Amino acid sequence: MQDIHNMSQLTSADLELARAFPEGFLWGAATASYQIEGGAFEDGRGSSIWDDFSATPGKVFQGENGNVAADHYHRLAEDTELMSSLGLGAYRFSIAWPRILPEGRGAINNAGLDFYDRLVDGLLAKGITPYVTLYHWDLPSPLQQEGGWVKRETAFAYADFAEVVAKRLGDRVTNWITLNEPWCSAYLGYGIGIHAPGVQDRQAALDAGHHLMLGHGLAVPRIRAHSAPNSQVGITLNLAHVYANDERPETQRDVALADAFSNRWFLDPILRGHYTEGFFEQLGLNAPPVQDGDLATISTPIDFLGVNNYTRLLVKGNTERIPLADQVSLVAPIPSACYTEMGWEVYPNGLRDLLLRLTKDYAVSKLYVTENGAAFKDAWNGNGHVSDPRRVDYLRTHIAGLAEAIQQGAPLRGYFVWSLMDNFEWAEGYSKRFGIVYIDYPTQKRVVKESGYWYAGLLKAFNQAH
Ligand SMILES: OC[C@@H]1[C@@H](O)[C@H](O)[C@@H](O)c2nc(CNc3ccccc3)cn21
């Protein structure tokens, strides 16, 4: 891979931005197993709920699936070389539970562990620090057949899975993320059913959310027991700062509701040891099946909070009726604002303000932005690189917000751009591209985008400044 650092077109302001970050700040990129690996039926891998969901007509854009994806399963050497050429300090990836325990529990598939062994060793050989997400939504199908995350037993199966992986990789992996976005797993997967497993039952979402958090709490000590003493364990939550569209009382009321549903549902149990007061009533639902000791387990101390953020929430109070927490009306698209291909408003200050709120309201010792990025209409004409100026601007403005947050006291230790490469975007299939590297799926060619050159240049400037 040619040295791509010299091709970046950084402005003098970009160089100054790179220098604004403290020594030791970690720059990385993130992916997830089902979204990039492919190799869906190889070397003993079992089926996941996303294999099943993708195979269900009407669930995924054009019936697309992760059978091949970006074929990462067969391209470890090429892709780790690509990461190295970008100058990444870290790489966040997830473990496919069905590769390790095809039945969800019981028999271990060593070929699955061998794949991640090779990946970790490849990263370390190139000086790239692995950040391992143990669960990024690909629950083994047999566990869903028993009820999945609405069943308490799944939390215990997850902790067993986490220990199997930590036993194999814990001598080399020192950065662990138990879950990616339990809010999405619970609400999108079990509440409104637009993600796997496609259940539409809001009470089930609460129950699943509780068991996901229980699994997190059960797994933390199991991971620590098999990792080096200097290891750190955290969890990644998708969070968004909530803004009021006006000063009306109903807007203030709905801002609190939106914050409870979007953020505090998981922040409060994990970091404060209790659910938000009145939360279940605000949803018009029953409490999940909390057992004695659960909240103590869920709030077991963690070393960092991973934050996935892409946009903000702008709330306009509803005067006609008092909405339920998950039915707050958001402000319609604003003519003067910019939106990504996902329909998400581009609002860089939202990431800064979110990090400052977390610093102010929650006792987090360390924060990482474990995902931030944007989908735009990227095209490649078959030669040269891919021009994606809107993504360059998205990254530039959001990263500038990180520097402000650090300056104002946020204990931010690193940033992972979503994503290293274009990939399977869940129900959107391959129609949405988030990568800083373009994937030409018919040929599986990797084409660094303008944003990839820019990010590589920023990382080089940062390294030169320290
Ligand atoms: O949608 C982009 C990424 C996705 O590819 C990742 O797998 C996932 O971790 C991820 N989370 C968000 C933010 N959360 C979210 C909220 C509503 C719908 C979908 C995602 C964005 N993304």
Keywords:
two-stranded parallel ribbon; 12 strands; eight-stranded parallel β-barrel; binds ligand IDE; 16 helices; alpha/beta; 13% strand; globular; 466 residues; 40% helix
Low-confidence residue ranges = none
Total beta-strand segments: 12
By secondary-structure content and strand pairing, the structural class works out as alpha/beta
Mean pLDDT: 96
Strands in their spatial order, largest beta sheet = 1-2-3-4-5-7-9-10
* Cα gyration radius (Å): 21 Å
Question: What would the principal axes of the Cα set say about the shape?
Answer: globular
Please state roughly what percent of the residues sit in beta strands, choosing from under 5%, 5-15%, 15-25%, 25-35%, 35-45% or over 45%.
Answer: 5-15%
Termini separation (Å)?
Answer: 25 Å
- Main sheet makeup: 8 strands, parallel, barrel
What percent of residues adopt helix (DSSP H or I)?
40-55%
What sequence of helices (H) and strands (E) makes up the elements? Answer: HEHHHEHHEHHEHHEEHHHEEHEHEEEH
List ligands, each type once: the ligand OC[C@@H]1[C@@H](O)[C@H](O)[C@@H](O)c2nc(CNc3ccccc3)cn21
Task: State the helix count.
Answer: 16
What does this structure look like?
Helix 15 (389-407) links the parallel strand 9 and strand 10 (412-418). The longest helix is centred in the middle third of the chain and has 24 residues, at 202-225. This protein has 466 residues and is α/β, with parallel strands linked by helices. Strands 1-2-3-4-5-7-9-10 form an eight-stranded parallel beta barrel, surrounded by five helices. Helix 8 (152-169) runs parallel beside helix 10 (202-225), helix 9 (182-191) runs antiparallel to helix 10 and helix 14 (349-361) packs parallel to helix 15 (389-407). Helices cover 40% and strands 13% of the residues. It has helices spanning 12-19, 33-36, 49-54, 76-86, 97-100, 110-125, 141-145, 152-169, 182-191, 202-225, 249-272, 279-283, 294-298, 349-361, 389-407, 450-465; strands at residues 26-30, 90-94, 129-133, 175-180, 232-238, 242-244, 304-308, 313-315, 367-372, 412-418, 437-440, 445-448. It starts with 11 loop residues before the first helix and ends with a helix. The radius of gyration is 21 Å and the shape is globular. The structure holds ligand IDE. The ligand OC[C@@H]1[C@@H](O)[C@H](O)[C@@H](O)c2nc(CNc3ccccc3)cn21 binds next to loops. The site of ligand IDE has 12 residues, from loops.
